[in-house]
Design goal:
With 299 residues, the protein is α/β, with parallel strands linked by helices. Helix content is 41%, strand content 22%. The protein contains nine helices and twelve strands. The chain is elongated. The mean pLDDT is 88.
Length: 299
């Protein structure tokens, strides 16, 4: 069976599928609304299927349309990546790799990875973007990023996950707080304190692990602030709005306004993992795993 479908038809379809409005889609595509309607109708005729249910006041995707929207979005993304990779090769580059990461991965893991990788692959371009765990999963599924650094226990079946660093938690206090490494006996000493914690949206798994620490200490924390950024946590602690608990890799020994107490005697640990899409065909991705394994062994 032969279909006379061109790339422009796919882009037209995806624009209407996104807006569910022919006029708005036509404006974004810089073509006339009647012209767009004719192109979509021709696409439906060529495929022999109905993509949209057209009503007086709204447009709705059919089941076939919903399926094609999802599949063609991924296919178009893959095609764009192929063109981009070809352009990099033309410009003398060997490719690119896009990372998503939670803040703690930037403290040591990612800088070390980039340094080691650049030694053997100097012509690789890297894209780095700090993202919460959920956004990274979305980015991996849509091929917007190639590799994620997350604090999750489970990921969708389309993805692969591998733990690379299991670490302790640390208590974060203002530099002049009465508690220190010598007189700290347990978290119960802070049951009257306000806590500044990572938002559950940052990672439900991570948040639950932190709550287990409080459960084991015999009290429920008074949480005054939630945030997804370590810098916000540190600024709030510095200004005596509360105290916090963070992964050890996120501690900043050079910050003289804070002090950190490692919670090494509690059983709870947090795990940093790498995650990637099993179907990702980026040829650079496979070269990264050996270096990450070596780095995680040395940490």
């Amino acid at each position: 069976m032969s279909y006379q479908i061109e790339l422009r038809h796919i882009k037209y379809f995806l624009a209407v599928a996104k807006d569910l409005h022919f006029r708005k889609a036509a404006e974004r595509l810089f073509i006339s609304q009647p012209g767009l309607s004719r192109q979509i109708k021709q696409m439906e005729l060529d495929l022999g299927i109905v993509l949209f249910e057209r009503h007086n006041r709204k447009v709705v995707l059919t089941k076939a349309g919903e399926y094609l929207k999802e599949e063609l979005t991924l296919s178009l993304k893959s095609l764009e990546h192929a063109f981009s990779h070809a352009k990099l090769l033309h410009d003398g580059k060997k490719g690119d790799l896009k990372f998503g990461y939670v803040g703690s991965a930037m403290q040591e893991i990612i800088p070390s990875l980039l340094i080691e990788f650049k030694k053997e692959h100097p012509n690789i371009l890297f894209g780095l973007k700090e993202m919460d765990n959920h956004k990274q999963i979305e980015g991996l599924l849509s091929y917007d990023i190639d590799l994620g650094f997350v604090r999750l226990d489970r990921v969708p079946k389309e993805l692969e996950i591998k733990p690379i660093l299991k670490e302790c938690f640390c208590l974060v206090l203002p530099h002049n707080h009465v508690l220190n490494k010598e007189n700290f006996k347990g978290l119960h000493q802070l049951k009257e304190a306000s806590f500044i914690l990572f938002d559950p949206k940052y990672s439900a798994t991570y948040f639950e692990k932190v709550m287990q620490i409080f459960d084991a200490s015999g009290f429920s924390p008074m949480v005054s602030h939630n945030t997804i950024h370590a810098s916000s946590i540190y600024k709030l602690v510095e200004n005596h709005f509360g105290v916090s608990i963070v992964p050890k890799s996120l501690t900043d020994p050079n910050n003289k306004k804070l002090k950190f107490i490692e919670l090494s005697k509690i059983k709870q640990r947090t795990t940093l993992s790498i995650v990637w899409n099993k179907s990702n065909r980026n040829p650079i991705l496979s070269h990264v795993f050996d270096i990450i394994s070596e780095l995680s062994d040395s940490l």
